[in-house]
Amino acid sequence: MYTEKVMDHFTNPRNMGEIENPSGVGTVGNAKCGDIMRMYLDIDDNGVIRDCKFKTFGCGAAVATSSIATELVIGKTVQEALQVTNKAVVDALDGLPKVKVHCSLLAEEAIHAALWDYAEKNNITIEGLSKPKDDVSEEEEEPEY
Amino acid sequence: MYTEKVMDHFTNPRNMGEIENPSGVGTVGNAKCGDIMRMYLDIDDNGVIRDCKFKTFGCGAAVATSSIATELVIGKTVQEALQVTNKAVVDALDGLPKVKVHCSLLAEEAIHAALWDYAEKNNITIEGLSKPKDDVSEEEEEPEY
Amino acid sequence: MDKKIYLDNAATTKTRPEVVEAMLPYFTEKYGNPSSIYEFASQNKKAVDEARSIIAKSIGAETAEVYFTAGGTEADNWALKATIDAYSSKGNHIITSKIEHHAILHTCEFLQKHGYEVTYVDVDENGIIKLDQLKKAIRPTTILISVMFANNEIGTIQPIKEIGEIAKQHNILFHTDAVQAYCQLPINVDELNIDMLSASAHKLNGPKGIGFLYIRKGAKLRSFIHGGAQERQRRAGTENVPAIVGFGKAVEIAIATMKERNDKEIELRERLIKKVMSEVPYVRVNGHRRNRLPNNVNFSFQFIEGESLLIMLDMKNICASSGSACTSGSLDPSHVLLAIGLPHEIAHGSLRLTLSEDNTEEEIDYTAEMIKEIVDKLRQMSPLYEDYMKKKA
Amino acid sequence: MDKKIYLDNAATTKTRPEVVEAMLPYFTEKYGNPSSIYEFASQNKKAVDEARSIIAKSIGAETAEVYFTAGGTEADNWALKATIDAYSSKGNHIITSKIEHHAILHTCEFLQKHGYEVTYVDVDENGIIKLDQLKKAIRPTTILISVMFANNEIGTIQPIKEIGEIAKQHNILFHTDAVQAYCQLPINVDELNIDMLSASAHKLNGPKGIGFLYIRKGAKLRSFIHGGAQERQRRAGTENVPAIVGFGKAVEIAIATMKERNDKEIELRERLIKKVMSEVPYVRVNGHRRNRLPNNVNFSFQFIEGESLLIMLDMKNICASSGSACTSGSLDPSHVLLAIGLPHEIAHGSLRLTLSEDNTEEEIDYTAEMIKEIVDKLRQMSPLYEDYMKKKA
Ligand SMILES: Cc1ncc(COP(=O)(O)O)c(C=O)c1O
Ligand SMILES: Cc1ncc(COP(=O)(O)O)c(C=O)c1O
After folding, report:
1. DSSP-based three-state secondary structure for A142
2. What pLDDT, on the 0 to 100 scale, is given for residue D327?
3. What is the ipTM of this complex?
4. Is A73 exposed, middle or buried (0-12, 13-18, 19+ CB in 10 A)?
5. Between vectors from CA C37 to CA C36 and to CA C39, what angle results, nearest 5°?
6. Distance between CA D242 and CA C359 in Å, rounded?
7. C158: which DSSP letter?
8. Residue from D106, D63, D112, D87 nearest D172 by CA
9. Coil vs helix vs strand at D382
């Protein structure tokens, strides 16, 4: 079902855990659809993401996308991090099953949510960032009966 | 599908053939439903069936019922022959598949038709014998869709 | 002959040993449910998709256009009943032929009882559908044309390309029951404008209980069997993995050997027809002489009845059929033979012999001889023959 | 452990070697079509009827009341859709439960789109149907009650006898989906007033792709799959002889070993439940503690999600399921777990382990250990667990 990359990130998640006193933290998803992602960011004075950690309640893809997303943003500036799209996440994992693509959206949204929190805490505006919904849904192919 | 008895009478039919100048001959059934039986009777002056022969166009059961029917009537009086029912024919063959029971009716009717012919030729009435239909049909179980 | 001579390959075929070999691991070793998440079972999903891909390629389709069913009958039922449902806003009229298999005809009767209209187009004396009649039958409410690729009794191959074109011109969905033609004839669904196609594995040396329905991408189609999310949510029920794998294997072999088999079968077929025609009087060959399945021979013998003939052939170790196997037990003569214009008593005297590459010339010669002997014997018993001879004399 | 531990017998089972053995001759040797007239093929009819007779006996039915299908799903579809048709003059209302398999639920949804009315009766927290609600749901137009014998996810066994009595009192047909219960529990259709019953061979160490529908004599029933005259003109399609023979063999063995298997499975089941309950916090057992299938264990672990758990178990060579296999790929938590009142996040953290007599105590102990280890690990990753612990602290 999953690529080797996904399995690797699921079984050996990178940057799993919490950051104490994070610069920003964001939680997205909901238990109803079975995925909750929380991202912690540690951002230095130059707006560079020094560290990023995650906690995730969800399927293998949810864990893997969280894990790879942390890797993708660490070392990036806030503005660069904002450009990490769900597509980048999927590509970095060598693809995701169609029914799991929503997990990558969730990862994108989690980063955005953490950045939003950082912006609010610091009373700044990050260009291109809008208040994230805390729920992510996606149109699904309706089965026809 | 068929009992041993049926197979025996089908593969070694008894009294198959014609009788020249028969006392009576009767043909029943039709090609549409795939069965035609012809019975020849040789009846002596005392009204005893001296010989009986058949020709049949039809399935294995049709041939076997014709064959056994000839055996059942030979040596019998006309009145006795009239009592040879399709049930007697089926029993004598150790049974017939349900869809083939109509063949035994055909055999009964063929005997009756030949007896009718004999009666007409001799200008007599045989008690209990009415003019046979020359077609025999039976109600079939209607498949439900 | 001591050995059984099997000449009923249109009824069913022997499963190839290679096919059984391919299936075996999926019973006791790789038995997992392909829908399961763990590797042990999900590898079976790959096996299923491999078979699907072999089959898709064999008719020039995409893998995602092939849906497994429990056989040809289910595929036919699905194609007709579910189409109706999906296109009911457009109309309620179906066109088919008079010589379809009962899987189509009885389904059409069912639909007629439920408010749908069906036109049964005639065929000519060779069993070829009357295209002008078919064209005339088209109405604005016509939602489906279903015409079989090749007939199971008389072997006649229909002008599928022409029918496909007509359907396309009128923007009507075209389904073909290819249960007898699939893997016996080359089929390309795009070239022939086929939108849906039914097939069954046990007709091509695959296992029983598995078939498929090809559905062209874009065709609206509903499920016929509802339940779990198998077959892309179109056909529910735990996948029959061993049978699917066996089906794939059987198709792979059948496609690779098609030309060779056809050649051999046609040779044997012509040998049998020639022998019987020259040695038995009052006989005719049913079906088109050229546009026919390579392995199909269908005779009508005057004055005798088919079942008797079959039983006597059986006693000589020859397995044959007098119509479609499914309808034996019925008293009516074959609807196909009536549709090509045979009178009832001639239709009753029909014999279908469907060959395989495993048959030998020796078997064919022996069969012709036995046919002659048995037909003679049955004619001696026949009141119809008696009448005919007396009239002639 | 190096060896695979298969704990997903509700999804499908290993076909018994004896069953495969029984099937094998029917592929390459006795391959004839049972509808054919010649001895070579008609002996297969006997083989089919022998299997039918074994199966009929196993539920106290008559041989002629058992009809083979391609599986449990087809049997369910048939029972519901064709009944509707036969009893439509009486009414258009069906009663079923909220925890049926999708083969029933999606079929009901289909029927609702076609003008029929369906009442889905609630179950209690253990998954037992609310009989008072069922009684109240009965209308003059109710033509069918369909309630599953035992649930495929949580293993709860329904009060079938009571439901059968209610149905009988009201002169309503009663169908039960016994796919999970058949050959796991004793079933007598007369004692339980069952009019129709669905079963599937691959759940009891038989082959995939074969099942049956029991239909009580006298019940009006139409065909669901139309075509040839097979199965007494009720279910068309060339008989899947090898699978039918295998089904018969599997039932024969399963019935003979039922008691013994039940005892062993219950012992293992209780061992597993006890171990996990005592070693893992924040866990619950779903389903009725006593009225449950001998081989079914269903846990919900708080704060974690089922798929992750499954994949990690898979990496430890343990095959399990987080719901019905057919629905994996879906994002929604199991409708069964929601129906027994679990909140979404708890339902998502569920794990189904369905045992067989082949499992060992060692396997069970290892599984319990792995569950503990993995649940711990996943909770360390879980933001829900983090929040809970912080709140608690
Ligand atoms: C033309 C045709 N259609 C449909 C079928 C039905 O196929 P199956 O018996 O595999 O369901 C057959 C064979 O019996 C057939 O010859
Ligand atoms: C309760 C229940 N009903 C129906 C089915 C469907 O059976 P099958 O997959 O054999 O069609 C299953 C199994 O998947 C089941 O557990």
Report:
1. coil
2. 45
3. 0.92
4. buried
5. 100
6. 24
7. P
8. D87
9. coil
Closest CA to D383 of C101, C366, A17: A17
CA C71 – CA C225 distance, rounded (Å): 13
Q: Which ranges in C280-323 belong to alpha helices (H)?
A: 306-315
Q: Which residues contact residue C392 at a Cβ distance below 8 angstroms, ignoring those fewer than 6 apart?
A: none
Out of 1.20.120.80, 3.90.1010.10, 3.90.1580.10, 2.40.128.490, select the CATH number for domain B4-124. 3.90.1010.10
Residue nearest atom 12 of ligand 2, based on CA coordinates: D179
* D221-268 per-position pLDDT tens digit: 899 999 998 998 899 999 999 999 999 999 999 999 999 999 999 999
pLDDT of residue D84: 87
Instruction: Please write the tens of the pLDDT for every residue from D57-79.
Output: 999 999 999 999 999 999 999 99
Binned at pLDDT 50, 70 and 90, residue C393 comes out as confident
Q: Is A57 within 8 Å of D329 when comparing Cβ atoms? A: no
pLDDT, residue A136, reads 47
Check if the beta carbon of residue D269 is closer than 8 Å to that of residue D355: yes
Judge contact between D93 and D173, C-beta under 8 A.
no
Nearest of C318, C378, C392 to residue C348 by alpha carbon: C378
Specify the ligand 2 atom closest to the Cα of D211: 10
Which of residues 64 through 93 in chain D touch C, CB cutoff 8 A? 70-74, 76-77
Across the range C118-140, mean pLDDT stands at: 98
D207, D220 in Cβ contact below 8 A?
A: no
Tell me how far apart the alpha carbons of residues D36 and D43 are, in angstroms, rounded to a whole number.
Answer: 10
Contact list, D221 vs chain B (CB under 8 Å): 144
Please work out whether the CB of residue D364 comes within 6 Å of at least one atom of ligand 2: no
How many Cβ atoms are within 10 Å of C216's Cβ, its own excluded?
A: 18
List the end-to-end C-alpha distance of chain B, in Å, as a whole number.
Answer: 26
Residue C17, class by beta-carbon neighbours within 10 Å (0-12 exposed, 13-18 middle, 19+ buried)?
exposed
Cβ-count burial B89-117 (b if 16+ within 10 Å, e if not): bbebbeebeebbbbbbbbbbbbbbbbbbb
Residue D200 has φ and ψ, to the nearest 5°, of -140, 135
> Exposed, middle or buried, D102 (CB in 10 Å: 0-12/13-18/19+)?
buried
Residue among D307, D302, D283 at smallest CA distance from D388: D302
| Alpha-carbon span C31 to D17, nearest angstrom | 12
Q: How far apart are CA C211 and CA C101, in angstroms?
A: 16
**CA–CA distance, D266 with B71 (Å, rounded to integer):** 67
Cα gap A65→A92, rounded to integer Å? 9
**Site of tokens 């064959």:** B67
Q: Which of A55, A24, A137 is nearest to D388 (CA)?
A: A55
For residues A28-67, one letter each, b for 16 or more C-beta atoms within 10 angstroms of the residue's C-beta and e for the rest, the string is bbbbbbbbbbbbbbbbeeebebebbbbbbbbbbbbbbbbb
Q: Which of residues 8-37 of B touch C (CB under 8 A)?
A: 10-11, 13, 16, 18, 27, 31-37
Q: D334 near D238, Cβ under 8 Å?
A: no
Contact C143, C86 (CB under 8 A): no
Specify the DSSP element, H or E, that contains D138.
none
What is the torsional sign of CA A102, A106, A109, A111? Answer: negative
Residue D389: what residue type? M
Residue with tokens 């953290």: D349
| Token pair listed for C313 | 């052939």
Reference C241, options C74, C12, C32, C19; nearest CA is C32
DSSP state of B30: E
Amino acid at B46: N
Q: Rounded distance, CA A104 to CA A88, Å?
A: 9
Query: Does D310 contact C17 at a Cβ distance shorter than 8 Å?
Result: no
Q: Could you tell me if C11 and D230 are in contact, meaning their C-beta atoms sit under 8 angstroms apart? A: no
